[in-house]
Write a structure and sequence with these properties.
heterodimer, A: four-stranded antiparallel beta sheet, about 0% helix, B: mainly beta, five-stranded mixed beta sheet, about 45% strand
Amino acid sequence: NAGVTQTPKFQVLKTGQSMTLQCAQDMNHEYMSWYRQDPGMGLRLIHYSVGAGITDQGEVPNGYNVSRSTTEDFPLRLLSAAPSQTSVYFCASSYSMGGGNSPLHFGNGTRLTVT
Amino acid sequence: DAKTTQPPSMDCAEGRAANLPCNHSTISGNEYVYWYRQIHSQGPQYIIHGLKNNETNEMASLIITEDRKSSTLILPHATLRDTAVYYCIVRVVWDYKLSFGAGTTVTVRA
């Protein structure tokens, strides 16, 4: 298994540009989520999904859209990038059964800079 | 979610056991204790989790006190590659979300 794969690894955007961060997992996990990590801070939840066709907002959803058309993929869209969205973005997944008894598996992140 | 308290940093000698404490005095009965680590610039890596009983896997051991108000992560033979930020997290049984705090920066020295 490749686990959780994120692309691209690095991205530079200009203010106002749009882009999609890709996340794919091959573990047949029903739960997927996006976090952002800013320097010196912990991870903050942006959006999550408990299965195909179901998404919900986390702590910091503003400026981001998600959709979940397949079990494997959970892309994160920035419609109009802002410098405040400069961060490292992590995608994570887990089995849905058990909730708190189901470890999250993380990708290696996308480092986004918005100028 | 219950909050956790961890020391900001600790050093450990290579080859020795590293004992990482975590206080979670307000933990409730349906909250698991999870440990993750993050090696520089990489994604968080799951280490171990438990509810009431002590747990061991190929990476580490987790010791949870009987009153569940604190726990200790034990890395039995620390190596230089174990240098990382270690996060102790409590997570409700029914909740898919994780809340990460500041963690403990562990430096393993040769």
